[in-house]
Amino acid sequence: MACPVGRKHVELWSGYTVLVLAVLTVALDPTHWASIVLGLLLGLLGAVLIVHGHRIQSPVLEFDEDEFRYTLGRYSVGVPLEDIGSYHVLPGRIRSLGLCDNTGRPMRFPSLRNLRTARSYLPLTGMTDPGRVEMFMAAAGIPPRNRSLTRD
Fold first, then answer.
1. Which residues, 6+ apart, have CB-to-CB distance to 131 below 8 Å?
2. SS3 per-residue string spanning 36-80
3. Sign of CA dihedral 16, 20, 23, 26
4. Spatial separation of the C-alpha atoms in residues 38 and 16, rounded to whole Å
5. pTM for the structure as a whole
6. Do 3 and 123 touch, CB atoms closer than 8 A?
7. Rounded to whole angstroms, how far apart are CA atoms 56 and 34?
8. pLDDT tens figures, 31-50
9. In which element (H, E) is residue 24 found?
10. What is the pLDDT of residue 89?
11. Which helix (H) or strand (E) element contains residue 33?
């Protein structure tokens, strides 16, 4: 399952739109120096947005018979399926996937881009539908973590 990246789509569409605007600016008045300079600046801005948009990578979740894998660019985590007891999706602007071991404790993963020593969640994207993550984890055979407190 590949998580959609909204920022990537916005930057690509914006970049191509600004690039078209640059061409229109120069095409409307190609003899005036101001329209040529404005067209060049808009073209440069559009090209920068397009290049940056193509470089944004989205996280990918995969599983096979005995391993769960998370990949984001060069960062990759592989966990044996029998070591995963449950999961939960953390809500928010940037959703995250938390995995718990068989005793219910959060699993720790190596740092992403050496920002911290370890992390207890795997970042997804804000456009990731929690329902799709639930269907994916059900297909992998990993139950959701019950986060509600019940009173007897």
1. none
2. HHHHHHHHHHHHHHHHHHHHCCCCEEEECCCEEEEEECCEEEEEE
3. negative
4. 16
5. 0.70
6. no
7. 33
8. 889 999 999 999 999 999 99
9. helix 6-28
10. 86
11. helix 33-55
Token duo for residue 136: 């994916």
User: Under a CB-based contact definition with an 8 Å cutoff, are residues 101 and 143 in contact?
Assistant: no
Enter the tokens of residue 133: 């993550």
CB proximity list for 27: less than 8 A, separation 6 or greater = none
Q: How much of the chain exceeds pLDDT 90, in percent?
A: 24
Structure tokens at 137: 């984890």
Q: Strand, helix or coil at 129?
A: coil
Report residue 114 as tokens.
Answer: 């050496």
The mean pLDDT value for 64-80 works out to 85
